[in-house]
């Protein structure tokens, strides 16, 4: 605990200097609960005292405060106070990773009275450690300091955690239960043409999307596929004209050829659903795609059709990726997503035998038999119409290049989030509004940026 608290105190000292210009003479408040999390805060307070910081602590359960930590703080000259006053920074040591539920009223009252930035110890108290859900009063931290490794809650509750800082405590940690690809891992797997490649060798993507009503969705899905890799994109459906007007390089047809007809063109991976509507025609196209033996992404209206008739998947063996938002996942499973988005995605993945990419600020990728993955958006500017259509096209492009479903989904979401950040500009706290078209235009720059990390 002392090693962890030492690292925590170093981060707090650095933040004091960055935010106030000094360490000595500054004030830090501690909110201390009954467990080890409170102990970490108390020990860190003791170390900060040695650097001339005034440290006040509120004990939320005075009888159960960590005895050694409390003794250390007192010995170092820290004060136990009934209220925090006006510190420069506050350490949240109320509950740790084994806590559950929102803040209790007394803790919530102290937190509500704080004007200073809060540094959370391990996780912001009141946020559910398993799901990242915030179901009542909870700390919203400027920074969360955790020990040894990031935990799932740091990805799931990014907005409550603020920045994350991992303090090395010299332990051999188990592999995280929620995997996250790094920029370099995405870049290393991205399909890149070599000297012997030509337009067919990197995979042909088939996009069945759009309708008279939703012409733009077809353009965005096709654009997502075209912008993600070299290789051919074929588009089928009621908005084929709009696609070729925008992308002369796309091969288009108004109808989907019968696979048995002999004239069926080669497609290595499919995207079906964006803007295609839920008509009988759309249903028969979806059925025809799902009957082919090629990896497929089903999105948007395709998901609504599949939810209404799961028998569309009968006999299917080839890899399948479903890309629902929360509303579409609820349609697929018949129940609201709830707070535990990992469990909801995993349940749908098992039910449909598919990789499920559940979209959102934290996008979850669940695949049968594999650890769930997360992609953190780090900004919310992508919450605008049509951005999901682009993601479907990007995922289909990676599937058609031969990537396994789980990787294709995670890599597409990763690059999509990067494109949103490039288009919006700035960091998590700033940037400006973007349209789906602007996100799409930034996809090549996102891939370049990822590849430059190699
Ligand atoms: N320019 C275009 O042509 C566009 C076409 N689009 C296509 O339009 C078709 C229909 O889209 P709709 O937006 O009507 O259908 P949705 O199924 O996306 O939305 C229907 C309802 O679902 C719920 N919902 C939507 N997003 C949710 C979320 N993240 N969490 C929880 N609930 C949510 C809302 O109650 C919403 O009213 C789709 O095929 C889509 O691909 C959209 O992508 C937008 C752009
Ligand atoms: N609050 C948010 N923060 C970050 N990304 C978001 C947020 N809300 C939605 N997104 C992303 O924007 C896209 C929206 O997709 P979707 O809901 O299918 O919209 P559409 O059907 O209009 O294209 C997804 O990639 C999703 O992850």
Describe the structure.
It is elongated, with a radius of gyration of 25 Å. The chain is an alpha/beta fold. A nine-stranded mixed β-sheet has the order 10-9-8-11-12-13-14-15-16, sandwiched between helices. Strands 3-2-1-4-5-6-7 form a seven-stranded parallel β-sheet, sandwiched between helices. The chain has two domains: about 170 residues, 3-Layer(aba) Sandwich (Rossmann fold), CATH 3.40.50.10260; about 270 residues, UDP-N-acetylmuramoyl-L-alanine:D-glutamate ligase. Helix 2 packs parallel to helix 3, helix 8 packs across helix 9 and helix 8 packs across helix 14. Helices cover about 40% and strands about 15% of the residues. The protein is built from 17 helices and 16 strands.
Topology:
Layout: H1 2-20, E1 27-32, H2 36-50, E2 54-59, H3 67-75, E3 79-80, E4 89-93, H4 105-112, E5 118-121, E6 143-147, H5 152-156, H6 158-161, E7 163-167, H7 183-189, E8 205-208, H8 215-228, E9 233-236, H9 240-246, E10 251-253, E11 269-272, H10 280-291, E12 296-298, H11 301-308, E13 320-322, H12 326-333, H13 341-352, E14 355-358, E15 362-366, E16 373-376, H14 387-400, H15 405-424, H16 436-441, H17 443-451
Parallel strand pairs: 1-2, 1-4, 2-3, 4-5, 5-6, 6-7, 8-9, 8-11, 9-10, 11-12, 12-13, 13-14
Antiparallel strand pairs: 14-15, 15-16
Helix pairs in contact: 1-2, 2-3, 8-9, 8-14, 11-12, 14-15, 15-17
The chain binds ligand NAX and adenosine-5'-diphosphate (ADP).
Adenosine-5'-diphosphate (ADP) binds at residues 300, 325, 359-361, 363, 377, 380, 382-383, 385-389, 391, 416.
Cofactor: K(+); Mg(2+)
Domain YjeF C-terminal: 182-450
Organism: Lolliginicoccus lacisalsi
């Amino acid at each position: 605990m002392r090693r962890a608290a030492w690292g925590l105190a170093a981060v707090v000292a650095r933040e004091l200097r960055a935010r106030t210009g000094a360490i000595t003479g500054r004030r830090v408040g501690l909110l201390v609960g009954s467990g080890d999390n409170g102990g970490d805060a108390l020990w860190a307070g003791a170390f900060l005292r040695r650097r001339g910081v005034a440290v006040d602590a509120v004990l939320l359960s005075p009888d159960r405060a960590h005895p050694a930590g409390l003794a250390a703080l007192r010995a170092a000259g820290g004060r136990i106070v009934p209220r925090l006053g006006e510190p420069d920074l506050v350490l949240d040591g109320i509950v740790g990773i084994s806590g559950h539920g929102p803040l209790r009223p007394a803790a919530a009252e102290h937190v509500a009275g704080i004007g200073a930035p809060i540094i959370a110890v391990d996780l912001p108290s009141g946020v559910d450690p398993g799901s990242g859900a915030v179901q009542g009063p909870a700390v919203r931290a400027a920074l969360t300091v955790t020990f040894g490794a990031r935990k799932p809650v740091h990805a799931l509750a990014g907005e409550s955690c603020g920045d994350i800082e991992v303090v090395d405590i010299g332990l051999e940690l188990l592999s995280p239960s929620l995997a996250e690809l790094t920029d370099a891992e995405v870049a290393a797997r991205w399909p890149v043409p070599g000297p012997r490649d030509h337009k067919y060798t990197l995979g042909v993507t088939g996009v069945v999307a759009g309708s008279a009503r939703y012409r733009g969705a077809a353009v965005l899905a096709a654009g997502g596929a075209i912008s993600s890799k070299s290789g051919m994109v074929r588009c089928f459906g009621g908005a084929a004209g709009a696609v070729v007007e925008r992308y002369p390089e796309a091969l288009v047809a108004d109808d989907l050829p019968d696979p048995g007809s002999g004239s069926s063109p080669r497609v290595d991976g499919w995207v079906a659903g964006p803007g295609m509507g839920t008509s009988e025609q759309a249903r028969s196209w979806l059925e025809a795609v799902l009957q082919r033996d090629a990896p497929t992404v089903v999105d948007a209206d395709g998901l609504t059709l599949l939810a209404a008739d799961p028998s569309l998947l009968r006999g299917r063996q080839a890899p399948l990726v479903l890309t629902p938002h929360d509303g579409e996942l609820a349609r697929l499973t018949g129940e609201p997503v709830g707070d535990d988005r990992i469990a909801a995605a995993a349940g749908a993945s098992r039910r449909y035998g598919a990789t499920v990419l559940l979209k959102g600020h934290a996008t979850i990728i669940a695949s049968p038999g594999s650890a769930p993955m997360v992609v953190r958006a780090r900004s919310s500017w992508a919450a605008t119409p049509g951005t999901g259509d682009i993601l479907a096209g990007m995922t289909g492009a990676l599937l058609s290049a031969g990537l396994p479903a789980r990787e294709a989904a995670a890599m597409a979401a990763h690059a999509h989030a990067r494109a949103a950040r490039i288009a919006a500009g700035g960091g998590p706290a700033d940037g400006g509004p973007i349209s789906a078209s602007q996100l799409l235009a930034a996809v090549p720059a996102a891939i370049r940026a990822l590849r430059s990390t190699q």
